[in-house]
Write a structure and sequence with these properties.
heterodimer, A: 142 residues, mainly alpha, 81% helix, B: 150 residues, alpha+beta, OB fold (Dihydrolipoamide Acetyltransferase, E2P), seven-stranded antiparallel sheet, 3 helices, globular
């Protein structure tokens, strides 16, 4: 159940990210996505969002106690997401399979990573403020 | 809550009677605090055995199949397993925050955000411990924070 909840949380954020990646890559590809059908592409974005969210939920299930382990996990996750996005991008015609296309895809995945990190940090900061307020209230006499 | 203190008859044992409509978590913690205030945990050091009051303990950590109790400046080994400690201290200020850590919430100075939905608890002795993502809902319950906020 916890896995499903986490998967759905990631799915919402990541699908937004995939949508941005897809839009950037289609705009910058040589064909500008002329051969793409909107009705099909939208479902492809949902599919890519689901695939990357599934991998994300799987990777982040592991508990990392040290910063080193966590950084290693982030790098592995980034490589996996890039691989999935390049495979899907080429299969669905969102990008061209050449050095430029691959660089553009990895850069746009990195940008989405940054976007997701900032969103998560803002949300976590808000939660931390709630925790601190509750701590002060609960232990004000101690 | 009304508090009444009566002097017992001569020779009678001291007792605490609690009359309440509902035994809520706050009351459970109070009862536990009364009971655990007297009970001490046996801990081991190289120099011998010591009795630790739960109030002295900042956190427990399991390392290589051993469990350690971390106090303000000293560390002791305890013989209980982490899950046993979790059960014993269920209605107290102690809470599981990771696979291998149980922290005394009353020793937390502040909580700050960390990576990937995790948080860092800054303790009164200057140490930090990680609150794993999966234990965040439990921490919220402990601090009476609803899922949607306070």
């Amino acid at each position: 159940m916890k896995f499903i909840t986490e998967f759905l949380e990631y799915f919402v954020i990541i699908t937004t990210g995939v949508l941005i990646i897809c839009a950037i890559n289609i705009s910058l590809s040589e064909t500008h996505g002329e051969s793409l059908e909107v009705g099909v592409t939208l479902w492809e974005i949902v599919g890519a969002g689901a695939a990357t969210a599934f991998v994300t939920a799987l990777v982040y299930r592991r508990e990392c106690n040290t910063k080193k382990k966590f950084i290693a996990m982030v790098i592995i996750h980034y490589i996996l997401i890039c691989a999935i996005m390049i495979f899907m991008g080429v299969s669905f015609g969102w990008m061209d399979l050449n050095i430029g296309g691959i660089i553009m895809m990895t850069v746009s995945v990195a940008l989405v990573y940054l976007f997701t990190y900032v969103i998560s940090y803002i949300s976590a900061k808000h939660q931390a403020d709630e925790f601190n307020k509750a701590l002060k209230e609960k232990y004000k006499d101690k | 809550m009304k508090i009444i203190i009566e002097t017992p008859e001569q020779g009678a044992e001291d007792e605490i009677v609690n009359r309440c409509a509902e035994l809520d978590s706050e009351l459970m913690e109070l009862i536990y605090a009364l009971k655990s205030g007297r009970s001490k945990l046996t801990a081991y050091t190289e120099d011998g055995i010591v009795k630790l009051s739960p109030k002295e303990i900042f956190y427990f950590e399991a390392v290589d199949n051993k469990v350690f109790a971390y106090c303000e400046k000293s560390v002791y080994e305890v013989k209980q397993k982490l899950y046993e400690l979790e059960e014993s201290f269920a209605n107290s200020d102690f809470i599981r925050v990771g696979k291998s850590v149980i922290v005394n919430v009353s020793k937390i100075v502040k909580i700050s955000p960390s990576f990937n939905g995790r948080f860092e608890a800054h303790l009164k002795n200057g140490e930090k411990t990680v609150i794993s993502r999966q234990y965040v809902p439990e921490m919220k319950r402990k601090l009476n924070i609803s899922e949607g906020g306070r």
